[in-house]
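Before relying on records like the one below, remember that each one covers exactly one chain. Contacts with other chains, cofactors or solvent are not represented anywhere in the record.
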Amino acid sequence: MIPKFSIDPDIRKASTLPSSFYRHPEVFQALREKVFYRSWQWIGDTTGLLEKGHAAPSTLLPGFLDEPLLLSKDGEGKVHCLSNVCTHRGNLVVENEGKYRKLVCGYHGRRFGLDGKFEFMPEFGETLDFPRPCDDLHSFPVRRWGPFLFAGLRPAFDFQSVIDRMEERVGFMPLDKFKRDVTRDKDYTIHAHWALYCDNYLEGFHIPFVHEDLDAVLDYGNYETVLYDHCNLQIGYAEGTDEVFDLPEGHMDRGKKVAAYYFWVYPNMMFNFYPWGCSVNLVNPIDLSRTRVSFLTYVCDPSKLDKGAGTGLDKVEMEDEAVVEGVHKGIRSRFYQAGRFSPAREKGVHHFHSLLARYLNREEEN
């Protein structure tokens, strides 16, 4: 049994999650089942699914959530996220990405449509009560936003609510025209607990102390955090740079010098929008002391790259990693239990800890 975690809803009274949260293997395993299994995760973009009949094997978080999945696009152009496990004897159905007329298991020839529906099985003519609904490939919920695809194994909330919040601020951007620039993509391995990385991301409090270059182009005094149910937004206003969004008439931030919109989506995804496009940051737990963070780059205006708040992202990452790894070492101390929140600067971290406590304390649902 893991302990119950409690975060006071009043940030002025609240303390952070205890250091034991980040140290205990049992809690780490509980996070897998109660947080990630019940969440939505990035599963790719539509670039590889341009043609009908395309299918590709996938996993949500390699090495952590290793449920075998496949993405497919059927003859009607609908994208599906399906179990990649044959309902006969458990073999993987699709081993390689490609174009398929049907999904056929290579073990005994069981055949499915691109929507996962069972179609045919040789040598089963005498089998009673067959086929049943359970002979279809299990279908998982999938959502699309612009070129981005999200799926969940058993999500506990509707991802559309997250999409709606992001649309309010960046829906004016030509999302369907975003182009992936793989030359700018990068993976980082951080020697720290995954939640510490999110803790750091969720507050601008550290910017003047850790990020000298970023602090030079952001107005720290007006840095803003907006909370929603399963996501939150940090707004970086420009200071010392002219690289800001050209916001359309009627936009809620029209007239403000917005340099960046930083969206965090529970529990481990970040979408950082700049005038040039979006940097997607995916936080993948490896174990208690290691985390892989993937930066994926989507560009809509190349002329604005390497300017303003959206430049020097690798340097910013190195600075963040240094402090996160320092905290990971520090919470091993016998003399540190928990800290307090700054009501002015750490609303995002308080929100994150409150969500983690709520989901960890939930009773398992059938």
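Residues 164-361 form a domain with the Naphthalene 1,2-dioxygenase Alpha Subunit; Chain A, domain 1 fold (CATH 3.90.380.10).
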